[in-house]
Every structure is written in C-alpha cells, then in structure tokens.
Write a structure and sequence with these properties.
29% strand, elongated, single chain, 11 helices, 6-stranded mixed β-sheet, 26% helix, 20 strands, alpha+beta, Molybdenum Cofactor Biosythetic Enzyme, Chain A
C-alpha cells in the first residue's frame, strides 16, 4: 500500500478531509470518548462539534491519486457483489453490513467469496450459505483493511465478479401434502405427533399443509396417498415414518411404487441420516417427494432445515448436494456449539 501523507489544516477548511486520529469529547461528570474516529470524512455539520471539542486545527490525510477511502471502497465492494433482497447499512468505521430484505434462502458463491478474500486488503464475511434467514437479519459484512486502498485493487475485484456473490432468494408459498405411515397411528393405537410439528415448521417458512393422510404399512395404500396429493396439485409431498431398515418399514418402497424417481436414500446428516429425496411428475411439473425420518418430529433442527428451504427457494437439489452436507452435518444438540453460526440454523 502507498504511504499516506499527513498535514495540518484549519478546521474551517477540513470539509471532505480524512481524519488521521480519533477526536475525543469530554462531558464533565458524564462521559469521555471518541466523537469522531480515525478515518472519518469531515462533513459541514461536524465543524461546530469539532470547535466545541477545542479543535481549531486538525491532522488530516493528504489526498493521493489512485487511492480510495475505506468507506467508499466498502460501498464499491457492495455494489459489485450484492444480489437481490439485501440492504446495505451505512458505513461504520469502514465496514458495511448487509441485511436480509425478506425471509428467504441465503445463497453464497463460496468460490467467488474465497477469491475476493484472497486478493489482499479486501475482506468479506458471511453467514453459512444455503440456510433460511429472516427479514432484518444481518447476513454479511465487508471492509478493506487499510484506511486507503488502491483503486487498482478495487478494479481487480470488480472485473473478477460476474454474478452476485451473495443474495437472498425468497421462498415459494407451497401447498404441502403430508402422508403419515404406520399401523400404530392408522389404527389409533397412538396419536400422530408428526402432523402438528410439520404444520408449524412449514408455516414458519411461509407454506401450508393442504392435508394429511394416515396410512398403514401397506405399500399400495401409501403409494395411493402420494398419488392423490399429486393429482390435487401439491407443490411438495412429505412422507413420515417407516424410514429405517426394519422389515416392517415400507415407506421407501411406497414412494417408489407411486411412480416417483428416488434421487437419494440416506444423507450424511445427524440427525436425519434416513432421509429420502425423490421427484414425481404432477400436473404442474416435477414435485419433490421427501421421506422424513422420525428425528424431524422431536429435534429442533435436522435434515429438514437443510433441505426444505432450498427446495422452496427453487434451488435444484442433487444427490451431490446431499452428499456434500456431511461437512457441517453433525449436530450434537449441545447448548454451546463449535460453529459461530450453526449450519442447521439453530
């Protein structure tokens, strides 16, 4: 980085200049602290405050050709990388944070993010991508390391970014059909506990359960229930229960018998290993059919929270995507997690 020159100027000539040091204000018996920090660009309304603190002369940085102030640099980074549904805040000590403008799926182009942070003197940090975020949540921030950064460095970043590095995708309001399997529930031996949980979970994502059908362990009955929801125009179908490998567990076979094409059975996610993802053809196109293991019913966060928001955001989920969930897919349910932000969204 080029050296910055410092000079002394009268406060009345300081508008537009960059402060070299913090300016402290003391209110006797009340407070003492910086009223302006190093790097602050002096505004006309600041002159009165500076004079009140006893500052008639200031140390400021001499403007240098080809150098950009940290606030302006952060604004240019934001303009280059930010996609839809993100609102930048005001610069604060050179940093601009990004806030979600709606509920949705946070999508981050991680390779592009890594390239940006590898340029040197430019930093950007985000939450884990592919998680559900609510409107108003801060999801990322960016700033440059020096007070002034070379124009060429910013141009390098701007030339390297061809699509949004970070964006929030709104979720579709899906109509979800629920098929609950198990003779113990179908014959009334125990009360179904899955339905209320799923209604609550989908409601939190802006979707609704259009209906719930109870079936026994008969493959044909469950397959017929899936087909019925398809004909009714369900946007998504979830099948609960019977996802383990016990002889009486017939749910995967029923999903296959319904005509759905199974994409994957099993996921490297705990809780949620016995997860199944399939697609069926409905009147309006492909419909995801999910086989949900029992853990979804009683764990606060599970495979449900990693997959369903992606599907509602219209993101194609492949078998490779599911396989990649192993890194970060372990949740011990502990109150103090090793992750700064839990990939399960807890």
């Amino acid at each position: 980085m080029a050296e910055l020159c410092m000079k002394v100027i009268h406060v009345h000539d300081a508008v537009g200049s960059v402060l070299c040091h913090d300016i402290t204000r003391i209110v006797p018996g009340e407070s003492k602290g910086p009223v302006f920090r190093k790097g602050h660009i002096v505004r006309p309304e600041d002159i009165k405050v500076l004079l009140e603190t006893g500052k008639e002369h200031l140390y400021v940085f001499e403007p240098l050709a080809g150098m950009v102030h940290e606030n302006d640099a952060a604004a240019r980074i934001v303009a280059a990388v930010v996609g839809s549904n993100l609102v930048p805040g005001d610069p604060k000590e050179g940093r601009i944070d990004l806030v979600a403008a709606c509920d949705g799926l946070l999508r981050v182009d991680v390779p592009a993010l890594n390239r940006i942070n590898g340029l040197g003197e430019i930093t950007m940090a985000t939450l884990h991508g592919m998680q559900f975020v609510t409107k108003g949540r801060a999801v990322a921030g960016t700033r440059v390391v020096p007070l002034m950064i070379g124009e060429d460095k910013l141009r390098c970043l701007e030339a390297a970014v061809s699509r949004p590095v970070i964006e929030v995708l709104p979720l579709a309001r899906a109509r979800v059909g629920v098929v609950t399997t198990g003779s113990e529930v179908y014959y009334g031996r125990i009360r179904d506990a899955f339905g209320p949980v799923l209604r609550k979970k989908f409601a939190a994502l802006g979707s609704s359960v259009m209906g719930q059908t109870l079936t026994s362990d008969e493959v044909s009955m469950t397959a017929s229930a899936i087909a019925d929801f398809l004909h009714q125009g369900a946007d998504m179908i979830v099948v609960t229960g019977g996802m383990s490998v016990d002889p009486d567990d017939r749910t995967p076979a029923a999903i296959r018998a319904s005509g759905a094409q199974i994409l994957c059975y099993g996921a490297p996610v705990y809780p949620g290993a016995m997860f199944l993802l399939a697609y069926a053809e409905g009147p309006g196109g492909r419909v995801p059919v999910l086989g949900l293991p029992g853990c979804v019913m009683y764990h606060k966060a599970s495979i449900f929270d990693l997959i369903v928001p992606r599907l509602l955001a219209g993101v194609e989920v492949t078998a490779e995507d599911v396989a990649a969930l192993g890194h970060g897919g372990f949740c011990a349910g502990c109150p103090e997690c090793a992750y700064p932000v839990c990939p399960f969204g807890k």
